[in-house]
Amino acid sequence: MDEIFITNFAFICDYAFTGEGGKLSIIGIFKELKPSGAFPFRHPVMFVVSSLTIKKPGNYEIFVKIIRLRDNAEIFTPLKYDLSLKEDKVAEVVTLAQLTNLKFDEPGDYEFQIFIGTELIKKLPVIVKAN
After folding, report:
1. Coil/strand/helix, residue 20
2. Distances from the Cα of 78 to the Cα of 21, 66, 95, 99, 118, angstroms
3. To the nearest 5 percent, what fractions of the chain are helix, strand and coil?
4. Model-level pTM?
5. What is the chain's alpha carbon radius of gyration, rounded to the nearest angstrom?
6. Of 7, 71, 93, 117, most Cβ neighbours within 10 A?
7. Tens place of pLDDT per residue across the chain (131 aa)
8. Distances (CA, A) of 1 to 4, 5, 70
9. Do the Cβ atoms of 112 and 124 come closer than 8 Å?
10. Which residues of 27-66 are buried (b: 16+ CB within 10 A; e: fewer)?
């Protein structure tokens, strides 16, 4: 069966932006955080960047959830993007989600999850280490 949604890439990084001509710049990709202070701590700024191919026109909701794996708790209100594709062709969609002062109460394993509607399309693990 042909997939409707394809994840071209997805990263968690220090900073991302689109520049002149729509060029995407991604700086400081990471999978691990090691805060210098005590818990809880707030990470000042990070981005979740993804490139998705959608092969069918329609209205879509893209969600980014952040889960603490120990208890499957959401640690942040999910980010939501509405997308409407009216043309009958393949579309590549780039999302840049900026997270500011994201709070981590404890060290451990976390996961950034990207959904289109109810379909989980990408998991991005992050390990938050203690000093």
Report:
1. helix
2. 30, 7, 14, 11, 13
3. 0, 70, 30
4. 0.90
5. 16
6. 93
7. 468 899 999 999 999 999 998 899 999 999 999 998 899 999 999 999 999 999 999 999 999 999 999 999 999 999 999 999 887 778 888 999 999 999 999 999 999 999 999 999 999 999 999 87
8. 9, 12, 34
9. yes
10. eeeeeebebeeeeebebeebbbbbebebeeeeebebebbb
Give the CA distances from residue 65 to residues 2, 41, 78, 89, 99, in Å, rounded to whole numbers and listed in that order. Answer: 26, 19, 5, 28, 11
Structure tokens at 111: 């996961």
The single residue listed with the structure tokens 């890439």 is 9
In the chain, the amino acid numbered 101 is: N
CA 116 to CA 49: how far, in whole Å?
14
Q: What is the Cα 68 distance to its own chain's centre? A: 14
Q: How far apart (Å, rounded) are the C-alpha atoms in residues 29 and 61?
A: 25
> Which residue matches tokens 């400081």?
28
